[in-house]
Amino acid sequence: MALRFAADISTAQTDYGTVLLDERSGQYWELNPTATLIVEVLLAGKDEAAATDAVVAEFDIDRERAQQDVTQLIAELRVSGLAA
């Protein structure tokens, strides 16, 4: 499933990943390089399987762990209200 950030979320790329700013609360979130890759794939309209494939291809991680990371990140972004 593709991902989109809420309208009040600003993003900035850093040397260490991505920073998200929730303009409603003033809270910052920092995404590490793995989370940044996952978000980039999902924001491009691709699904969780494509994000998992990208993580496996980019990092030294097995597919099962990559899938868990993708699922957990999506859940955390949605629960926090950052993404839909």
From TrEMBL:
Top-level taxon in the UniProt lineage: Bacteria
Pfam families: PqqD (PF05402)
Alphabetized InterPro entries for the sequence: PQQD, PqqD_sf
Protein name: Lasso peptide biosynthesis PqqD family chaperone
Organism: Streptomyces crystallinus
Lineage: Bacteria, Bacillati, Actinomycetota, Actinomycetes, Kitasatosporales
